[in-house]
Amino acid sequence: MANQSMTRRDFVSTGVTAAAAAAVGMHGASTVAAGNPACADTSKILNYNPDMEYRRCGKTNLMVSAVCLGGHWKRVNTVVPGLFQGGNWLSGNFNNPDFIKNRTEVVTRCIERGINYIDACTGQEVEAYSKALKGRREKMYLGYSWYQNEVRFPAWRTFEKLKEGFDQGLKQAGLDYVDLWRITCHEQSGQHTEGEIEQLVRALEWAKKSGRARFTGISSHDRPHIRKLIEKYPAQLEVIVTPYTAKTKVIDDESGLWAAMKKMDVGWFGIKPFAGTSLFKGDSSPDSPHAEEDSRLARLTLRYILCNPNITAPIPGLITPVQVDNAALAVKERRELDAQEKAELERATDRAWANLPYHYQWLKDWEYI
Predict the structure, then answer these.
(1) What is the reported pLDDT for 191?
(2) How far apart are CA 302 and CA 313, in angstroms?
C-alpha cells in the first residue's frame, strides 16, 4: 500500500507486484450486503472502517469505499458566504481560510467514516484537495484530472502537451504521484479523432510507466465510444468515470456498455448522482427548510445506485461534514428500496429531469446503460 513517504521510483519498481498481490483473495469476489467481499483481507483495505462497504475497483484491485468524495463543491457558498465570484463555483478566492477549513473538515469526516477515495477533476480541485490531504495522504486514494490542461481543449491534444500539463499540475499541487489519472474527454468523446485518442492513451501509458500515476483511465459521457475504447486499450483504460443518476437503469444486453465494463473488468465511478443538485428542493444550506427531505433523497439515490454491484462507487460532491455523515449512513441502510421509497424517488427524479439546466441536458442520455 502506498504511503506518504513512497516515491515515484518506488511505484515504478513495485507497482505491478503490489497490484498482483492485492488480487490474491479478492479478484472475482462478490460484494455482500454487510459490506465487503467475503474473502477480502480487511487489514489491506486503505482506511478501513467496519461500517463502510468496500468494492473492488476492477482490474486495479484497489478496494474502494462504496461512496466516495467527488471533487465538486457546488453550493459551498451556502456555508462559506461570498466565496464565489460571478456565480461561478470555480471562480473565487480558494485561499480563503474558511474555504480551506471547510474542505479540510469534509476530508477529515470522510476519513473518519472510512471513505478512501477523492476524485478531483479541475485544477482548483486538485490543489484544494492536495492541501486538505497534506500529512495524511496515506488515508485516501487521489483521482486526478486537471481538465483545463487536457484534451477538451485543442492545445492539449498531443502526447507532449499532455505530458507537460500533467507534470505542471503535479508540481503546482505539490504531488509526486497520483493514484489515478483519468483524463477528462468531451462529454461526447466521439468528437475526438482517433489520432487524438492515440495521443491520450500514449500519455496515460507514459504516466503509469514513469510512476506518476498508479492507474489510468478516462472520463466520458459517450457510451458507444467508451465501449470501443475500453476494448481497444484495456491496459490503459483501467477506470472509467461516467454519469450515473437515480434515473439510470441497466439493460441486460451483451451489446451494451454495462456488459463491456464487466467483461473488461473496468473500475467504474459514477458522477452527478444527484443530477447536479437538481434532485433537491433546498439550497443545501444548513438551515434550509428542505434539509431533512433532501438528505433522505440523497440516501435513497445512493442506495439505488449501489444496487448495481458492478459500479465501484458514486462520487457525490459534499460540502459539509453532515453531508458526509448522510452519505455514509446510506451505505449502512437497507439496500433495496421498497415500493413507497421507489415512488418517492421517482417523483423526485421526474422533478429533477424537468428542472435540469440546459448545460446538464446530456444527463438524460444516461437513463439506460
Answers:
(1) 77
(2) 9
Q: pLDDT tens digits for 7-56?
A: 443 444 334 333 333 333 333 333 333 456 666 789 999 999 999 999 99
230-268 pLDDT, tens digit each:
999 999 999 999 999 999 998 777 778 888 899 999 999
Q: What is the DSSP string of 11-42?
A: HHHHHHHHHHHHHTTTTTPPP-TTSS-TT--G
Burial of 95: CB neighbours in 10 Å, binned 0-12, 13-18, 19+: exposed
CA–CA distance, 190 with 195 (Å, rounded to integer): 12
Q: Which three cell numbers stand for residue 300?
A: 435513497
**What is residue 317's DSSP assignment?**
B
CA distance 299 to 324: 11
For 345-354, the CB contacts below 8 A with 24+ separation are 345/246, 345/297, 345/300, 345/301, 345/304, 348/246, 348/279, 348/297, 348/300, 349/245, 349/246, 349/247, 349/275, 349/279, 351/279, 352/245, 352/274, 352/275, 352/278, 352/279, 353/247, 353/275, 353/278
Listed in sequence order, the residues at least 6 apart from 19 whose beta carbon sits closer than 8 Å to its beta carbon are 60, 61
Q: Where are the domains of the chain?
A: 8-361
- Single-letter code of the amino acid located at 72: H
The 10 Å Cβ neighbour count of residue 322 is 15
Choices 3.20.20.100, 3.40.50.10190, 3.40.50.2300, 3.40.50.2000: CATH for 8-361: 3.20.20.100
